[in-house]
Amino acid sequence: MKKDDALLDEYEKLILDKLKNGLTQVEVSKYLKEKNIEPYSLRSIEHRINGLKKRFKAKTLISLVYVLTKKGYI
């Protein structure tokens, strides 16, 4: 299995779903904190998103969500 074909974990799916539905990264962080889902820091979310952008060769958050939606991951 190629690295870019790896499935997303539940934490990544949750973050991306919230972003896809219009929440900002700050709002996602607050949502995770309210639900006691760790890690919930803004930096942790940014780090995960940046890793996903590298993994799926996306330059922007919008392009990342688009690629993952097209592939059926989110």
Please summarize what this structure is:
This protein is an all-alpha fold and 74 residues long. The chain has four helices and no strands.
What are the key terms here?
4 helices; single chain; mainly alpha; Arc Repressor Mutant, subunit A; HTH luxR-type domain-containing protein
Give a structural overview.
This protein is 61% helix and 0% strand. The protein has helices spanning 10-20, 25-34, 42-55, 61-70. The longest helix is centred in the middle third of the chain and has 14 residues, at 42-55.
CATH class: Mainly Alpha
Low-confidence stretches: none
Bulk shape: globular
Strand content: under 5%
The major β-sheet equals: none
- Radius of gyration over all CA atoms, rounded: 12 Å
Layout: helices, strands, pairs:
Layout: H1 10-20, H2 25-34, H3 42-55, H4 61-70
